[in-house]
Amino acid sequence: MELSIGEMALIAVAIVVLFGPDKLPQIARDLGAGVRKMRGAVEDIKTEIMKETDNPVSEIKREIEKVKDAAKDFNPLNDIQKDALTEPTSSNELPVVKPSEDETYEGPVSR
C-alpha cells in the first residue's frame, strides 16, 4: 500500500482539522507507542516460533548424541567373550556337523 505525497498531506490536514493542532503531539506519541507495542508483539511471536521450530531439532540432536554414546560403549566382542567364559569347551575347534544333521548339505553332485 503506497501513499502519494498528496494523499499523505490530505490525511495530515484531516487529522489537524479533526483533533486540533494542540492535541497533535499527544496523538503522535500515542501512535509511536502503539507502533512500538506492535513491533514488540511481532518480535515475541517470532521468538516463540523460533523456539518451537528449534525444539524438535534440539531433541533430535540429543537423541543422536545418546546413540553415539551407546555406540562408543558397544563392543560385540565382549558378548562373545562372556559366552566363551560361561560355556566351557573342551577345545578351541569348531564343532563338527554331521551331514545327516546339516539341512543345507546336498551331498555329492554328479555331472
Structural class: mainly alpha
Rg, alpha carbons: 40 Å
Overall geometry: rod-shaped
Extended strand count: 0
Distinct helical segment count: 3
User: What proportion of the residues is helical, as a percent range?
Assistant: 55-70%
Average pLDDT confidence is 81
Q: How do the SSEs run, as a string of H and E?
A: HHH
Roughly how many Å apart are the termini?
90 Å
Uncertain segments of ≥5 residues (pLDDT<50)?
none
Largest sheet: none
Oligomerization category of the chains in this entry:
single chain
Quick structural gist:
This protein has three helices and no strands.
List keywords for this structure.
111 residues; mainly alpha
Walk me through the structure.
This protein is mainly alpha-helical. It has a domain of 71 residues. Helices cover 68% and strands 0% of the residues. The chain is built from three helices and no strands. The chain starts with a helix and ends in a 25-residue tail after the last helix. The model has no long low-confidence stretch (mean pLDDT 81). This is Sec-independent protein translocase protein TatA. Part of the twin-arginine translocation (Tat) system that transports large folded proteins containing a characteristic twin-arginine motif in their signal peptide across membranes. TatA could form the protein-conducting channel of the Tat system.
